[in-house]
Amino acid sequence: MTTTGAEASAIGAGWRESKWLAGVELAAVLALFAADLRHLVPFSKTPFLVALGWISLRLRACGWRSVGFAKPRSWGRALAAGALAGAGMELLELLGTHPWLSRLLHKPPDLSSFRPAVGNLRIALVLLVLVWVLAAFGEELAYRGYLMNRVAGLAGPGKRSPAAWLLSLVMISALFGAGHIHQGLTGQLENVIDGLLLGLLYLACGRNLAAPILAHGLQDTIDLLLIFLGKYPGL
């Protein structure tokens, strides 16, 4: 019995889009989070999530461009959207979610790991590089680019309905918050809200990552500047 080229291509496509492969990937993500809870993950989960995303995209004959890591239609609009969103998210955090959640839960987010950067320019600059590499680029590639698309795609090839994207947005934002467990419950909930806003920005920009990367990096840069100046509330 022989298999035609078209049949072989269909078999390959079916394997790449199979739900069992997505299930294996999501199980690997959960295992990574479990390992992090046990302090078995060196330094950061983000490089491992990005590596898993790269492997997944390669196995499915895709690339990072397919999940939005590509030139936006308009750099001007993308930069404006990212800057406005980043500044808006920072204002919301400082004037809204941070004081409200701190009062509700009777404690601010645990940012003690950033305390060495207070007044220390060298440490602050090192953290600034990490903010852009791991948080802005790494987390947006991993959470909004890879994971949001992977979860939304569980509905099937070409069936990413608004409901699928909404479910993906909520699930991955919750996962994004859980990824900041070292910041305590207050910090996790703040990051759930940030994840929702970044995910909405990603979808609003036609699933292009340029604006979310800029927004994420700008917000964290302002946070780091306030930490360096000793002005971040609750630190």
Describe the structure.
This protein is an all-alpha fold. The protein has one domain. Helix content is 70%, strand content 0%. The chain has 8 helices and no strands. The protein has helices at residues 5-16, 19-37, 46-59, 75-105, 121-152, 162-178, 184-204, 210-228. The longest helix is centred in the middle third of the chain and has 32 residues, at 121-152. The chain starts with a helix and ends in a 7-residue tail after the last helix. Residues 5-12 have low confidence and may be disordered.
Overall, the morphology is: globular
Report helical residue fraction: over 70%
Structural class: mainly alpha
What are the secondary-structure elements, in order, as H or E? HHHHHHHH
Radius of gyration: 19 Å
Task: State the gist of this model.
The chain is about 70% helix and about 0% strand. The chain has helices at about 5-15, 20-35, 45-60, 75-105, 120-150, 160-180, 185-205, 210-230.
